[in-house]
Design brief:
alpha/beta, Rossmann fold, Phosphoglucose isomerase, C-terminal domain, 3 domains, 6-stranded mixed beta sheet, 5-stranded parallel beta sheet, 20 helices, about 10% strand, globular, binds 6-O-phosphono-beta-D-fructofuranose
């Protein structure tokens, strides 16, 4: 705890210091990391050399834990599982041994089967009852939805296969609206569920099968399963040749790299998917080998810990200035909050500090016209992470891309520099305000500034770059978890609600009474029963 306390002391001393006063000729460069064609700039934060040194001290537990993860040790120790999503992007790489067995031959064989299958869907040789597949519907939730849904949207310029759709919510509206305009005879349904027990997914999959059965003679032939529960996929009636399995050492929210990414592979093709994997692999290598001060995931995590655990800023805004990354915040919410939203450490004892932050965001510039007001002038400080590409994919719309980048940089500048009272007063005086009214009007136009942000710039959102970005965030979560001493790979906090929902369903249906429920729950049930 010594380093934590030193950091807290240090924060007390410097909390009112102006971030912009830290800039000299070297700050921007020395508080940035330029690696793998990306520039991570954290100079617009209140971190100085002393703070960074202390933060780097905090990172010491990462060394052993990182080695254990890559070596296939069972670091997810409440579930007794290894954590090896990195193996899925190690295609053509070194052996990786779990329980005495090299897992790479199986990983590579499954990858090759995915490539072959997706090619048959893309080239039209795999047919539905009505001919080549025009639409693919991925039915999954959480990690079996957010990764592929985010990546398919992100890589729209690389699509060259059938259209992909995603259904996750058990709300019947989701599947009904998705299937409404599709032709069942040319639709492929992918049921994505690691456990194949998730009630939302299984219910939606059954609804899709009923929909298809109304016009397709053998609907099962247009179904694919992605799962690690092969007995259950067989029970559902999906033939083995269309089941793509993976091991329990791939966590749901880390699974886009393997079979769960099949919809993405169908959309962009095997070659581009390979490049997505190799981008991620290059980030793995960087994470394993770069010195911590130059290690992007490590520094990204340390900046996050500084803001959350030391400065006490409870939330973190992620603002991609990239419309195609509009699902990135939702993806990161699962990745970060399901991983590091824990209350106890590895030893089961309550944490002496807060765990992971609340993560949220929207693409710029849309967010600017919605909630940025609060980030600039609200009473709470919200550190923001900006992301922007140097180039878009629309050469004819280069001016729009320039506007996008200018807006992104303007926001971080405004957050840091703000606008003082004197400037605001001068502005209002030019508008002919005087006396008390001038002061009042000027006060409304003051921006306190000194609000931290980081910016990640990259050349273009290619498949390889997306792979790097996602792997960067995965390792950031890992580093934060290792320093906080928590298990980032289980998710017990989602269980209670699931159990209660199963018990409540017959009550909602009217088959059982709710007498053992609290007064509020009873009242809510009475209301919906009266109105349904
Ligand atoms: O409810 C949480 C969760 O278990 C996530 O961790 C997971 O990504 C999601 O549900 C879906 O699980 P499955 O892929 O087993 O259907």
């Amino acid at each position: 705890m010594i380093t934590w306390n030193l950091l807290k002391e240090k924060h007390k001393d410097i909390q009112d210091r102006a971030i912009n006063s830290l800039f000299d000729d070297t700050r921007a460069q020395s508080f940035s990391i330029d690696a793998l064609d990306m520039l991570f700039d954290y100079s617009k934060t209140n971190i100085d050399d002393d703070v960074r040194d202390l933060l780097l001290d905090l990172a010491q537990p990462v060394v052993a834990k990182r080695a254990a993860m890559f070596a296939g040790e069972k670091i997810n120790d409440t579930e007794k599982r290894a954590v090896l999503h990195t193996a899925l992007r190690n295609i053509g790489g070194d052996p990786i041994v779990v329980d005495g067995e090299n897992v790479m031959p199986d990983v590579e064989a499954t990858f090759e089967r995915m490539v072959q299958f997706s090619e048959t869907v893309r080239d039209g040789s795999f047919k539905g009852q009505g001919g080549p597949i025009t639409d693919v519907v991925n039915i999954g939730i959480g990690g079996s939805d957010l990764g592929p849904a985010m990546a398919v949207l992100a890589l729209a310029p690389y699509h060259s296969g059938p259209r992909c759709h995603f259904v996750s919510n058990v709300d019947g509206a989701h599947i009904a609206d998705t299937l409404r305009d599709l032709n069942p005879e040319t639709t492929l349904i992918i049921v994505a569920s690691k456990t194949f027990t998730t009630i939302e997914t299984i219910t939606n999959a059954k609804a899709a099968r009923d929909w298809m059965a109304r016009s397709v003679e053998n609907p099962g032939t247009q179904f694919v399963a992605l799962s690690s529960a092969l007995d259950k996929t067989a029970d559902f009636g999906i033939a083995e040749e269309r089941v793509f399995g993976f091991e329990d050492w791939v966590g749901g929210r880390y699974s886009v790299w393997g079979p769960i990414g099949l919809s993405l592979m169908i959309a962009i093709g095997g070659e581009q998917f390979r490049s997505f994997l190799s981008g991620a692999k290059s980030m793995d290598d960087h994470f394993r080998t770069a010195d911590f001060a130059e290690n992007m995931p490590v520094m990204l995590a340390l900046v996050g810990l500084w803001h959350n655990q030391i400065c006490g800023y409870a939330s973190r805004g992620v603002m991609p200035y990239e419309q195609r990354l509009s699902r990135l915040p939702a993806y990161l919410q699962q990745l970060e909050m399901e991983s590091n939203g824990k209350r106890v450490g590895m030893d089961g004892a309550e944490l002496p500090y807060h765990s992971g932050p609340i993560v949220w965001g929207e693409p710029g510039t849309n967010g600017q016209h919605a909630f940025y007001q609060l980030i600039h002038q609200g009473t709470r400080v919200i550190p923001v992470e900006f992301l922007v590409a140097a180039q878009g994919h629309e050469p004819d719309l280069a001016y729009q891309h320039q506007l996008l980048m200018a807006n992104c940089f303007a926001q971080s500048e405004a957050l840091m520099n703000g606008r003082d009272f004197e400037t605001a007063q001068n502005l209002m005086a030019q508008k002919r305000f005087t006396g008390e009214e001038l002061t009042r009007q000027a006060n409304h136009r003051v921006f306190p500034g000194n609000r931290p942000s980081t910016t990640l710039v990259y050349p273009k959102l290619t498949p390889s770059m997306l792979g790097k970005l996602i792997a960067l965030y995965e390792h950031r979560v890992f580093v934060e978890g290792a320093i906080l001493g928590i298990n980032s790979f289980d998710q017990w906090g989602v269980e209670l609600g699931k159990e209660l929902a199963v018990a409540l369903q017959p009550i909602v249906q009217g088959d059982k009474t709710a007498t053992d429920k609290d007064g509020s729950t009873q009242q809510l049930i009475k209301f919906i029963q009266a109105h349904s």
